[in-house]
Amino acid sequence: MKVQTKLSRVTIVICAIAILFAAASGYMINSMRNTAQSMYEHPYTVTNTARAMRSRLLDMKQFVGIFLTRSFESEEKARELFDERYAMQNEAIAAIRESYLGPAEDVTALQKAMDGLIEIQDEALRFVGTHSEEDILSFIEERVYPYYDEVNDCLERILVSSDKRIYQLMEDITHTTVASIGTALLLTFFIVFLTMYSNMVERTSIKELKARERELHEALLLAQKANNAKKDFLSRMSHEIRTPMNAIIGMAAIAGAHLDDRGRIEDCLTKITFSSRHLLSLINDVLDMSKIDAGKLTVNHEPFRIGQLTESVVSVIDSQARTQEKIFECDISGIRQERLIGDYLRVNQILLNLLSNSVKFTPRGGMIRLEIKEIEDQKGRTFLQFVVSDTGIGMSEEFLERLYLPFEQADGQISQKYGGTGLGMAITNNLVELLGGSIDVKSRLGEGTVFTVKLPFDLPEDSEEYHVRELETLRVLVVDDEEYDRIHANILLKRLGIAAQFAKSGREAIKAVLEAQEAGTGYDVCIVDWRMPNMDGIEVTRKIRETAGSDVLMIVLSAFDWSEIDEEGRRAGVNAFIAKPLLESPLRNVLESVLGADISSKEPEAAQSNCTGSRLLLAEDNALNMEIAVELLQMAGAKSDCAVNGKEAVEKFEDSPAGYYDAILMDVQMPVMDGYTATRKIRAGGHPDAKTIPIIAMTANIFSEDIDAAYAAGMNGHMAKPIDAKTLYQTIAGVLKL
């Protein structure tokens, strides 16, 4: 590799001084040249011209008497001789005027004196022809000579001034010469000094330069590596995006070719929905990463229940694991506070990222496990520990060092075999830090991976009273083959004041129910695990119903999605399903239902998709999005009027009578007038419903600042595109209070 060298600062200073020296020398030489040229062109020229003029003047003064007396021949010849001399003198005066650097009055006085001399000598010529020699000489002595003297005085003043200028210019040349020599010596000294200093510095800095060269080389390698990682990321993203897009396009084509086959169309639509959501998750990952890089990721502090978190995570991951023939387990222990305050969505995203990776990198038959426990409880705050472990392919120590870097994967074969964008762990790490928690990882190739995440949560100020006196009278039987699950259920039931009985298998449970019935102490509630060896929970329920009738409340407990067994379970006599891991709130709610108690702490039911009789104004510029929204609203029984931009929406609303529209669904980015401007115009208008009509943003602008902008414009809600039917119905029901 070639080492690029660059000039040191000292060398640059030396070069600058050398340039300065050359410039100074050139300036001084040019100054002396200009001074000498000025001396020659001005005072020297004036002096020579004035002296020559004075010489001619004195010569003429000396011979003028003889010329006008003894040598006089005729007035014409005398005037010719005088005019010749006058011309020479006037030329000299013109030359002096051009080059003289002294006062202009001196040259004016000289010209005036010369004009007077010419005039008096013309008078003398006329005097000669009529007077004697003695009278002529007397005239010259008295009248002419004073003008010669006046011209001579003027020339003397000019000569004195020019001589002074010459002396001054010579002094300037002397000073310039001295300054030039001094500057040359000073700059030479600096050049010699800096050259020696530069040589010394260069010798002492060779090691630093080599070290910097190594650093630059390493930085170049890192930059190339990062660039390659981004290239690999773009390649993976292209593959990851095209895969669901191919499925969407392909399934749409297959559905179009089998319009008469309802089953085939339903299958295609299911796969299109799954692929669309997968594509949306990829886009969300990229958007999250861009928000993290821009420092725009925000944290919400909202109340939620731990049961919401486990239910949403378990249902997704269990479905993935079962589809791929893998085992998923979830255990909860030591949870004293079910109600928490924090960012439920971000915690959900962290767990789903970690668990999805575990599912992805665990072979068939492998185990994925989620453990949640409370590790610290402070006043008004608690810390939860989430442990995600698997028996997957594991990671090398080398890759663990760059695990949280964006766009990174262990190697190209990993991305080719398992897919992924390489952003998941970078996003997870940033989210954990954003929430004020910590993340730790332990992994070995071929043995699996364990992630430990610790997160803080605030606690609500008001505490719920779980204990219901009547629950103490219930006789409860818990049937589960796992000892840990039986112990956990016992702890929860004791907190509710219930002393439960336990069975380790279905056969043991059926026997216990029969014996209790015969003894007249039958059970009020049987909580039965779904997945048990030999006899599952549905079969146990069926057997108990055959022997004990409908007196026993049968609850099936499962860590899996029970939607596939819901119908079978109801036929067998199942009264309710509870998600595993078992939590106190859902358990209490089900048990209270036996006594007919008011279950005030139940989670609100999802809004029904019934908007019959509602009329909505839909502002949407995209024809396809408009068609989808109109169809979804029509399916819910709502009528809708459409506007293709904000201006048209404002006009339709203002032209409508009071109470005509129940709500407005407003896109944000539209031509002519955007949704924010349209909302502000509606709110500022004179329509009777302008201040009260609900306006909901329905947009692909999903960042927190976009949501804030919607509310700031006067909107009442925000929905993200692509439109989700359930969210649409819930939002409309919420603002319309259906």
Describe this structure in words.
With 738 residues, the protein is of the alpha/beta class. Helices cover 59% and strands 14% of the residues. The chain contains 21 helices and 17 strands. The strands form four sheets. A five-stranded mixed sheet has the order 2-4-5-7-6, with helices on one face. Strand 15 (663-666), helix 19 and strand 16 form a beta-alpha-beta unit. The chain is elongated. Residues 1-6 and 597-608 have low confidence and may be disordered.
| Major sheet description | 5 strands, mixed
Provide the low-confidence segments as ranges.
1-6, 597-608
Helix % is 55-70%
Rg, rounded, reads: 53 Å
Distance between the termini: 74 Å
Overall spatial form: elongated
- Helix- and strand-based class? alpha/beta
Mean pLDDT comes to: 77
Taking strands numbered 1, 2, ... along the chain, how are they ordered across the largest sheet? 2-4-5-7-6
Number of helices: 21
Strand content: 5-15%
Count the E strands: 17
Overview in brief:
This protein has 738 residues and is α/β, with parallel strands linked by helices. It has 21 helices and 17 strands. Helix 20 links the parallel strand 16 and strand 17.
Main attributes of the structure:
738 residues, alpha/beta, disordered N terminus
Note the topology.
Elements: H1 9-68, H2 75-99, H3 104-128, H4 133-204, H5 206-257, H6 262-294, E1 302-305, H7 306-323, E2 327-333, E3 339-342, H8 344-360, E4 367-378, E5 381-390, H9 397-400, H10 412-418, H11 424-434, E6 438-444, E7 448-458, E8 476-479, H12 483-495, E9 501-503, H13 506-518, E10 525-529, H14 537-548, E11 553-558, H15 566-572, E12 576-579, H16 584-595, E13 615-619, H17 623-635, E14 639-643, H18 646-655, E15 663-666, H19 675-684, E16 695-699, H20 704-713, E17 717-720, H21 725-736
Parallel strand pairs: 2-4, 8-9, 8-10, 10-11, 11-12, 13-14, 13-15, 15-16, 16-17
Antiparallel strand pairs: 1-3, 4-5, 5-7, 6-7
